Amino acid sequence: IAGARPVERPPLPHVTVARPPRRADRDVRAAGRAWLDAQPPIDAWVRFERIALYTWNVDRRTRLFQIVAERRLDGGVSP
Asked: What's the confidence (pLDDT) of residue 79?
């Protein structure tokens, strides 16, 4: 892309718990922070119902990422 070297490292698995919209104003970010502060501490156990593989969205003005594949963790495929 534009003469840049391709990324050769493998992707790093991680969990994004919450991401505010790109153009979120101060009130939206404050509400998100209040939600985050009300969640269990970082060392708490959590149960994930589904996982998803994301890639960059074609139109990043609306969303940064789009889901490529998604699976429920009970073995089924999400709609």
From this structure: 53
Q: How many other CB atoms are there within 10 angstroms of residue 76's CB atom? A: 9
**DSSP letter for each residue of 14-53:** --------TT--HHHHHHHHHHHHTSPPTTS----SEEEE
> What is the CB-side half-sphere exposure of residue 36 using CA atoms within 13 A?
12
Question: How many residues can be counted in the chain?
Answer: 79
pLDDT surpasses 90 at 51: no
Residues 6 and 38: their CA atoms lie apart, in Å, by: 40
Residues 54, 67: contact at Cβ < 8 Å?
yes
pLDDT 10s digits, 2-29:
788 888 888 788 777 777 877 889 999 9
* Residues 11-23: b if buried by 16+ CB within 10 A, e if exposed: eeeeeeeeeeeee
